[in-house]
Amino acid sequence: MRSSRVYTALFVVLLCSQALTTSAGLLDDIPVGTGYTAHDLCSRTNVSGDQYERVLEEYIRPKVQPLPYIWSIDAEPKKQVEVQTFVPFLTHRRIALYREGLGCTVVQTEEQATNLLGRDLKQATALPREDAPWPQGEQLAESEQLSAPDAALINRHADAIFAEPSTEPTEQRNTTALLVAADGRLVFERYAPGYEREQPQTGWSMTKSLTALISGLMVTDGAFSLDDPVGLSRWADSEKAKITWRQLLNMSPGLAWFEGYGGQSDATTMLFSQPDQGAWAAGLPMESAPGTVFNYSTGTPNIAMLAMKQQLGGTQAIYDFYHNRLFRPLGMQNGVIEHDYSGTPIGGARGLLRPVDWLRLGQLVANKGVWDGEQLIARPFMDYFVAASPAAEEYGAFTWRKASEKIPAELRQRLPDDLIWFAGHMGQYTVIIPSMDLVVLRMGAAFDEDGALEQTFSLAADLAEQRRSE
């Protein structure tokens, strides 16, 4: 025990020395690590029901090195996760509070925690579970709908996707779920050992596409049009007042932004240190004319959520809206978009849905907004959703398109031209090919994100080619 303390003390001295000799860059990263750890550990264990030790040791510890050498974690199941450092001048603290049905929210002080827990938000009532085939009901995958060649192909890919390329934690892919829908039916689903269908899983930036679909429902309802100004009250009488919904959803509002997850960035500062994330992102300066420059930003969907909350009338109103207009019609269970401290849904990163429900969103896109025979989201919006942004051919409305160079060139050439896909941090992918009525979903906690991407799109490409030849 004594030698362990000595080694820890020596490490802390070296850590502090490094921080001081690198313009305190490491000091800036500490709030990122504590906030990331608190929020991810809270959401995965309390919302998703994942195993505490697995999440901490396999998904978080390798991600936030060297923070584990100086952290202290106090986790109370179904209540909160508090993470802080014990080194005097490196002390930082983040608390992720859990609220049933609402997920986890990061705060920094006891005062904020007390205030948040004292708020009254009426939760959505549970949906009746229909014993019918997916997507209308909750029945398991209809594997018998697959041809023998398709079944063999999917199973071969699935075996590879769930296998690990290395025993090194920072090289693993940690696939938790793989699902395939074909011709509007769920034909394949597999979960990693210890995971179940009923567990909501973090979509990270796939939440951006969810946010765009929610905005599409507001357009459908006539709340605003794509060419209307976003209308944030804080933008009144400024050059930002002319930014339109079309420009916002295309990730080209002209606002300054640095997206990054390796340490301190606009994205991590906002997600883990800002109580009102949409307002903070909206307050950044203009750096280009709206509609002219594509700048991928987790802040931009948070601005969209803030604007929709403002227009609808507050936290309860926007919560009720996305549950009543999207989740209930699609039969989605146990889903939530976690809030920041101000009560705005974190539309850029914090959607937690069951894999079968992320797949439902992909099917809605494949259906061009039609659900159960009705046009749930207006067709003109869905056409815009998948069309290339004037500022970037690779992007639509908070959604990626085939042209993206994120997909290896060989795979891009093999995939149909109408490919659209949601993508999230650590290997979350919903791959949609409307022309073939095909949707592939992969979820997990991949450190080898390139490998997870290539595996997912290889499955989609091989399946599309095989089905085309049948």
TrEMBL record:
Gene3D superfamilies: DD-peptidase/beta-lactamase superfamily
InterPro entries: Beta-lactam-related (IPR001466), Beta-lactam/transpept-like (IPR012338), Diverse_Enzym_Activities (IPR050789)
N-terminal signal peptide: 1-24
Molecular function in Gene Ontology: hydrolase activity
Entry keyword Signal: yes
Keywords on record: Hydrolase, Signal
Pfam family, one: Beta-lactamase
Domain of life assignment: Bacteria
Residue ranges crossing the lipid bilayer per the database entry: none
Keyword Hydrolase in annotation: yes
Domain Beta-lactamase-related span(s) in chain numbering: 171-347
PANTHER family in alphabetical order: BETA-LACTAMASE-RELATED, BETA-LACTAMASE-RELATED DOMAIN-CONTAINING PROTEIN
Protein name in UniProt: Class C beta-lactamase-related serine hydrolase
Organism: Hydrocarboniclastica marina
